[in-house]
Write a structure and sequence with these properties.
Helices cover 80% and strands 0% of the residues.
Length: 117
């Protein structure tokens, strides 16, 4: 079974994905959310950073069993995206962010569902 700390990190990831989905829904689309530089985009990028940090903490604490529920590209990609956000905020490719939300979140959510069930 997974440690309580690892489970809490998974719940944080799930919560942050939910926050991003709510922002997108309230904005009307991913594109509209990302166009709102002052609020929605900033919130989305911050939540993506938090998701990456949770994955990184799981990795560095040796929680490989729980991480096996996710695709390696999602774990690695989330941290690479976090680095882009942190080090080149204005240069972030919003197409990549859009793709993560649209294509990778459903895959990540499947892993979360498997863990939490």
């Amino acid at each position: 079974m997974y440690s309580d700390r690892a489970m809490e990190r998974i719940r944080v990831i799930d919560k942050k994905i939910g926050f991003i989905e709510n922002i997108v829904r309230n904005s009307g689309s991913i594109i509209k959310a990302l166009e709102d530089e002052e609020n929605s985009r900033a919130s989305i990028l911050m939540h993506l950073t938090s998701i990456a940090e949770q994955f990184d903490k799981l990795l560095h604490s040796g929680e490989l069993e729980i991480l096996s529920n996710f695709e390696k590209q999602d774990i690695k990609g989330s941290y690479e995206l976090r680095n882009f956000i942190a080090h080149d905020y204005e240069g972030i490719d919003l197409y990549i962010v859009e793709n993560v939300i649209e294509e990778r979140f459903p895959v990540i959510k499947q892993g979360i569902k498997k863990i939490l069930s």
